[in-house]
Amino acid sequence: MPHEYERYALQLQYNGEWQFSGYDSYRVVLLIKYSRTQSCTKPGKNDSMHTDRSEPAEVNHYRPEISELITGSYQRLIGKSLLASPDETETGRMLYLAPFVVLAHDTAVDPVFFYANQMAQKLFEMTWDEMVRMPSRKSAEPVLRADRQKFLDRVAVHGFIDNYSGIRVSRSGRRFFIQRATVWNLINLHGVCRGQAAAFNSWSAV
């Protein structure tokens, strides 16, 4: 879990203030180093975790390699658990069946979803197979995609941004407004960027 001053550094960097009053020079170095390692400006190449598009299920233990990346990155960046009652042996199942939306896309030039839990599938009116073959930009209307990409570029640099709002569209063309979403970089234990994820539990029809 990040120390309090490390989370504070991310917030300062996001606000563009960089005010270090009260910290000695050693901690300032730590703050800068930590914030840089949480960026996705130099993403790693997609690996078997991304190329394997099999749906989480009991037979594959709900894809623990993906659930650890998503929940672990959230914990390390934001300093709290994504799941209300995290259980390491049940994380994959809990994430896939969670009562809120969780999505993740890979590091391709045109990022493609590699994870969409059941609530996300329901909201976007797609199956797992349909979701994980779709470029994530298509979750937004064409006219809104440029603004969406600018936002994701900010997340790539700053690590995470919470309280995001925006309009998305389902397969049938139904538009909905998501609110208070958290979007964060997916950084594995080796400090390599594997994509970005989003989670939210509030939306309304447009």
Give structural attributes.
disordered N terminus, 21% strand, 206 residues, single chain, alpha+beta, 6-stranded antiparallel β-sheet
Explained architecture:
The longest helix has 15 residues, at 64-78. Strands 1, 2, 3, 4, 5 and 6 form a six-stranded antiparallel sheet that branches. The N and C termini lie far apart (38 Å). The protein is 36% helix and 21% strand. With 206 residues, the protein is α+β, with helices and mostly antiparallel strands. The model is unreliable at 1-37 (pLDDT under 50). Strand 3 and strand 4 form a beta hairpin. The protein is globular, with a radius of gyration of 17 Å.
Discrete helix count = 8
Distance between the termini: 38 Å
Q: How is the biggest beta sheet arranged?
A: 6 strands, antiparallel
Low-pLDDT runs of 5+ residues are 1-37
- The average pLDDT score comes to 82
* SSE class: alpha+beta
Shape descriptor reads globular
Cα Rg: 17 Å
Residues in helix, %: 25-40%
Give the DSSP E fraction (strand runs of 2 or more residues). Answer: 15-25%
Question: What's the SSE pattern?
Answer: HHHHHEEHHHEEEE
Number of strands: 6
